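User
Here is a favour to ask of a fellow structure person. I am asking you to supply a protein in sequence and structure-token form. Please set it down just below, with no commentary around it:

Assistant
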Amino acid sequence: MLSHLVALKVKGVASITLNYFELECNLGMFHTLLGTMLGNHHALTTAYRAFWVLLLQGFHIKLQKIINTKCYVNPAHILQSIQLVCFTWFTQKRHHINFTHILFTITLSTMFCPI
């Protein structure tokens, strides 16, 4: 509700993900948000669903190891990459969208941290 949003803005609530568990919770909440706000058949929702399914079908173990053990990618980098993909989709006249490339670049160690 709008009253909840106003209450959160007043308190200055912020969430910073520090480990894989918090990242997965945030990614799941974003998936729910997309489905609720845009609908299940929207281009962003279907592209994100492909990302979510791929993550849960085996990439979560690799990603957890990369974040919690190797520490060369932070959860904030992944969240910011998703944010940039969404921003680009809205600003660039709705071109083809792909969230799954984020997982592939992380596992191949070719991810550049967003600036």
Observations:
- The chain has one domain: 19-107.
